[in-house]
Amino acid sequence: MSRLLEQYRKEVVPKMMERFGYKNPLAVPRLEKIVVNMGVGKAIAEKTRLDAAVTDLAAITGQHPLITRAKKSISAFHVREKMPVGCCVTLRGRRMYEFLDRLINVVIPRIRDFRGLSRTFDGHGNYGMGLDEQVAFPEVSVDKVQHIQGMNIILVVRNSNDEESYELLRLLGMPFARDQSPETGRPAKVG
């Protein structure tokens, strides 16, 4: 069993039940899935960029990525319908908790000038964040990377609203920023 899953069951569920007054442990919000997406718009000109993104995403998640394709043609971007433009992976169960554990304890501390994650949720309790470089993950060898590629990470939480999701992720160890601007939800500037 994953260390983070065990922490969720033994520590987070009782604290959430006490704080929000749940009577049943199954009513407590839980992480349903994590979606990791890499948009590779430059793959239109260079086909090797998509192959490199697929290889890196497979190494990061431990699962083979799905190639995403354009839904419609956009002439200004030289994109035709059904042209490959990215890749994504949906993680569930044990792999999801292992990925989240690595994200919290290994990847986020390696981010330069990190001041905490934004507290902005989508209104339904789901949380999204972006990373600028895939080399923050230890699975990706910096020497073999030809192109720096960013990614989006979406955490989908079941049975939740924004406040409950924030508390759940905070208890799991997500390093949210403490002082934030109320208008933007971004960390307040220091100094």
What does this structure look like?
By secondary structure, this protein is an alpha+beta fold. The chain has a single domain (about 5-115, about 125-170), classed as Ribosomal protein L5 (50s Ribosomal Protein L5, Chain: A). Helices cover about 30% and strands about 20% of the residues. It contains 4 helices and 5 strands; from the N terminus they run αβαββαββα. It has helices at about 5-20, 45-60, 95-105, 160-170, and strands spanning about 30-40, 65-70, 85-90, 125-130, 150-160. Strands 2-3-1-5-4 form a 5-stranded antiparallel sheet. The longest helix is centred in the first third of the chain and has 18 residues, at about 5-20. The protein is globular and about 55 Å long.
What is the secondary structure topology, with strand pairs?
Layout: H1 3-20, E1 30-39, H2 47-61, E2 66-69, E3 84-91, H3 93-107, E4 127-131, E5 151-158, H4 162-172
Antiparallel strand pairs: 1-3, 1-5, 2-3, 4-5
Helix pairs in contact: 1-4
Features:
single chain, alpha+beta, five-stranded antiparallel beta sheet, 50s Ribosomal Protein L5, Chain: A, 191 residues, globular
Order of helices and strands: HEHEEHEEH
Query: How many domains, as an integer?
Result: 1
What would CATH call the homologous superfamily? Ribosomal protein L5
Tally the helices: what do you get?
4
Strand content: 15-25%
Biggest sheet: strands, sense, closure? 5 strands, antiparallel
CATH architecture: 2-Layer Sandwich
Main β-sheet, spatial strand arrangement = 2-3-1-5-4
